[in-house]
Amino acid sequence: MTNSPDQDSLHLRRIRSFVLREGRMTPAQQRAFDEHWARFGIDYSGGAQDFDARFGRHSPRVLEIGFGNGEALAWASEHDLARDYIGVEVHGPGVGRLMNALAARDAANVRIYKHDAVEVLEHEIPAGTLAEARIWFPDPWHKKRHNKRRIIQPEFVALLATRMAPDGLLHLATDWEPYAQHMLEVMEASPHWRNAVGPGQYAEKPPWRIETHFERRGLKLGHGVWDLLYRKA
């Protein structure tokens, strides 16, 4: 008997895809938690969320896992007001920076988790909720002994598929070629997803993914960038 996606994901929680090095928050980032968390933050409760109530409307929802400093998420939410954005990030300085950016423009279509993405997916996001999910430049865990920590694994993408609306889009991006190859292998082997641009193909950079500071730094170092687009099968 095969395990269900939710059973398999228990294994993912034991092998974290991140290391929590919190770093030092600036006074402005700390103030963001004091002043803006009640507005933008969602405290992890372990129960399914009513996102219509959270956002005050019914609309397509986009999940970004590991948004870093929030630069791309802030831009996307400002230029896509018809959809709501859910961001998940474990590192406090980036969360604080994003909340300050959202508060500066009085954003209404973003909510944030400061929590492990696997647990959020398992317990807080109901089935069929997401129109799109984005995982851009996750930690490549480039040493072979650490490859098991990569978030893109068969069990994880199976779990994610259960949270997607029909024909929902998964957009992956990385600047580490071995990880791009790993992503492609995992996604092509998954029965839950179909390649949006053709079997075994990487995608051209879509216009909605802006070039971030992180990406520009990588390009200057001679890194390539690989995008993958998949639809829920």
TrEMBL record:
SUPFAM superfamilies: S-adenosyl-L-methionine-dependent methyltransferases
GO MF annotation terms: tRNA (guanine(46)-N7)-methyltransferase activity
Binding site for substrate: 143, 175, 212-215
Record bears the keyword Methyltransferase: yes
EC id: 2.1.1.33
Pfam families (UniProt xref): Methyltransf_4
Keywords for this protein: Methyltransferase, S-adenosyl-L-methionine, Transferase, tRNA processing
Pathway: tRNA modification; N(7)-methylguanine-tRNA biosynthesis
Gene3D superfamilies according to UniProt: Vaccinia Virus protein VP39
Catalyzed chemical reaction(s): guanosine(46) in tRNA + S-adenosyl-L-methionine = N(7)-methylguanosine(46) in tRNA + S-adenosyl-L-homocysteine
UniProt: S-adenosyl-L-methionine binding residues: 64, 89, 116, 139
InterPro entries, sorted: SAM-dependent_MTases_sf, tRNA_(Gua-N-7)_MeTrfase_Trmb, tRNA_methyltr_TrmB_bact
NCBIfam families membership: tRNA (guanosine(46)-N7)-methyltransferase TrmB
Family: Belongs to the class I-like SAM-binding methyltransferase superfamily. TrmB family.
Record's protein name: tRNA (guanine-N(7)-)-methyltransferase
Organism the protein comes from: Dyella flava
Lineage: Bacteria, Pseudomonadati, Pseudomonadota, Gammaproteobacteria, Lysobacterales
